Amino acid sequence: MSPFASALETAGKPLFADVAGDISVSFEFFPPKTEKMEATLWESVKTLEPLGPRFVSVTYGAGGSTRERTHATVERIQRETSLQAAAHLTCVEATREEIDEVARDYWAAGIRHIVALRGDPPEQGKAFVARPDGYANAVELVAGLRKVAPFEISVAAYPESHPDSPNRAADLDNLWRKIDAGADRAITQFFFSPEAFFRFRDQAAQMGIDAEIVPGILPVSNVAQTRKFAAQCGASIPGWMDRLFEGLDNLPAARQLVAATVAAELCGQLYAGGVRHFHFYTLNRAELSYAICHLLGLRPTGQAREQAA
Q1: How would you classify the pairing of strands 152-157 and 113-117?
Q2: How many domains does the structure of the chain reveal?
Q3: Which of the residues are catalytic?
Q4: The pLDDT value given to residue 63
Q5: What is the pLDDT of residue 5?
Q6: Mean pLDDT for each 10-residue chunk of the chain (309 residues)?
Q7: Domain of residue 10, CATH code
Q8: Calpha distance 296→309 (Å, rounded)
Q9: pTM above 0.70, yes or no
């Protein structure tokens, strides 16, 4: 019986009745552009810190556009909090030597975890073109990072296939090659169907991929924005989600409640199917991710609780 079928057998009991707090989580942030956005980010970081995440990652803009801000944000998290910071690093618009230098700088700053990605092209809608003197893809990047330092390395996975991938088999083969090159785990792009994740995880296991595959969770509070994200990464937005958010444009509190309910139900179904590790795309807001972690039984650690008091 598949994990999802097993989860459906428990449909008669409350979704969070059996959670035991036996989960681990990680959170993703993006580097702020303004002072106001920076204040929001750090408030979110401090709110989520007591939950004791395995790590928190900071994204890297298309074409390396946020390289300096990413570096500054990662270093500050590492320096001023108890969190383990992970830096996103991409292949776009940089030579191998430039990327290796960034990696060496991270290692010197105490950063031991890299999220290695091919990256998005500088101009939306344009195809990715590797530089002759750069890393051609995430497989090459992972192998290159392994030569720089013994980083912990996470890579991306796509339960509904990457937009540039010709088919699911090619997508899975690419994931296998990233793991074979030295990646420690895969974090999936966001999705809204538990079946999509379980199917992908089972297919990966059948191929012999034994690395951890962590579901990426995006709590949705803006369907239009999410649709834009989905178009870039190959995720599908179910019709029922549009209907749930209809008429809530001017009701932010209600919209947030619906968003928390949708994401929490997805996480509850994943938990019922055996998932114990979750990665949250926070969009630099803590409330939804914190609420879902709470529903899954996660509570502040003793030391972190004292720091937050």
Answers
A1: parallel
A2: 1
A3: 28
A4: 52
A5: 54
A6: 54 74 95 93 97 95 68 94 96 92 95 94 70 93 98 95 82 96 96 93 94 94 76 78 85 89 93 95 94 93 49
A7: 3.20.20.220
A8: 22
A9: yes
And the tokens for 66?
A: 């946020």
- Give which of 238, 253, 286 is closest to 39, Cα–Cα: 286
Tokens of 252: 């932010």
pLDDT at position 304: 43
How high is the pLDDT of residue 230? 76
Tokens for 290, please give them. Answer: 């914190």
- CB of 242 closer than 8 Å to CB of 223: yes
Q: Which two tokens stand for residue 148?
A: 């720089």
133 φ, ψ to 5°?
A: -100, 15
Q: Would you tell me how many other CB atoms lie within 10 Å of the CB of residue 18? A: 12
Cα–chain-centroid distance for residue 180?
A: 21
Looking at the DSSP bridge assignments, the partners of residue 125 are: none
For residue 160, the tally of other CB atoms under 10 A from its CB is 22
Please list the residues that pair with 309 across neighbouring strands: none
91 near 136, Cβ under 8 Å? Answer: yes
**Which residue is it, tokens 């996660």?**
298
Residue 6, pLDDT score: 55
The DSSP string of 261-307 is HHHHHHHHHHHHTT--EEEEE-TT--HHHHHHHHHTT----HHHHHH
Q: Which residue has the tokens 């609420």?
A: 291
Element (H, E) at 171: helix 168-181
Q: Two tokens at 225?
A: 């924005």
Output the six-digit token pair for 109.
């700053």
| Domain span holding position 73 | 3-308
Phi-psi region of 68 (alpha: psi -120 to 50; beta: other; left: phi over 0): alpha
Total count of residues recorded for the chain:
309
- Is there a contact between 109 and 82 (Cβ–Cβ < 8 Å)? no
Residue 281 β-bridge partners: 28
